[in-house]
Amino acid sequence: MAGTLTQMFGTIKLLILAVLAYYIRDWRALILATVLPGIFVVFTFSMIPESPRWLLSEGRVKEAEEIMKDAALINGVTISKPIRLLSHSKGKGHSKHEVKDLFKHRVLCSITLVLMFVWFTCSLVYYGISLNLKNLGGDIYTNFAISASVEFPAYFCTIFFISWSGRRKSLFIFLLGTATSCWCCMKYTYSASAFTMAALAATGKFFITATFALIYVFSAELFPTVIRNLGMGVVSFTNRMGGVLAPFVVLMGEYDRSLPMLVFAVLSLMAAVISCSLPETNCKALPETVEDCEMMFSNKKASKTGLIRT
């Protein structure tokens, strides 16, 4: 729930952007107005604690214990005994991993490659649908605001689905819904009204937003703790590549307004199919080491040496 709801602030950002874009028509002034508030973000980093799970995997037990004590104090939890966390790590700096380690192990390599494609598709389709509104007819400001508003129910839907039907099945359903919406939008580009096209685009935005919200949580659960930051960095890189290519796909609409939606539909369908190969993580312990990941997701018994216990 926390991992999904925090993404709602991105939706609030889009709604504010729609208002700013309506009143600030000069694109240079608009960019300046949206960039300046981000400067203040640098002052919030000190407020965010380190991950206790990661600290334990690095052998930094005392620091992890202090964070847990602070968390208990903030949550109003009374602890009768001192917090003692145990880690089977070999000490600080024992788990120095590189990007290539994501591709050296069979299961982890498969997970990484599939997530890279899914993240790439999510970003390209998400930003592509937003940018392609100009090719669908109607008022672009109204269409943008509508497509942003549908993200709120998408997040709540994600919270329900990932707990009810699991991560993998939900991911397949959301990507398939995106592909279907984009396909219908492509098919009726020249025959449907502007309202119908906006509704179909908003439906596609609903499903791809739910996919985006889910894939953040799902990916973090799939990568083991010792290499999670690298794994999330790699898939985020492919995510940004999709965002970079999205405007160029939208430019295809100058030749045929239906082409961008065709590309979005095909990529979403491909991502839905290959996402079925990902292992389910719902109600399972998170893997701590690469070895745990290999054994847990290979239907073998995970070793206890990599699991952190309290």
* Shape descriptor: globular
Spans of at least 5 consecutive residues with low confidence: 300-310
Pattern of helices and strands: HHHHHHHHHHHHH
Number of strands: 0
Relative helix content: 55-70%
Question: What percent strand?
Answer: under 5%
End-to-end Cα distance, whole Å, is 24 Å
Q: How would you state the average pLDDT, rounded?
A: 83
Largest sheet: none
Give the C-alpha Rg.
22 Å
Protein structure class = mainly alpha
Count the helices. How many? 13
Structure description:
With 310 residues, the chain is mostly helical. Helix content is 63%, strand content 0%. It has 13 helices and no strands. α6 runs antiparallel to α10, α6 packs parallel to α11 and α8 packs antiparallel against α9. The radius of gyration is 22 Å and the shape is globular. The C terminus is likely disordered.
Characterize this entry briefly.
By secondary structure, the chain is an all-alpha fold.
Keywords:
globular, 310 residues, mainly alpha, disordered C terminus, 13 helices
Topology:
Layout lengths: L1 H4 L2 H16 L3 H9 L16 H6 L3 H14 L31 H26 L8 H10 L1 H14 L2 H21 L6 H29 L5 H24 L7 H16 L15 H7 L14
Helix pairs in contact: 2-7, 6-10, 6-11, 6-12, 7-10, 8-9, 8-10, 9-10, 9-12
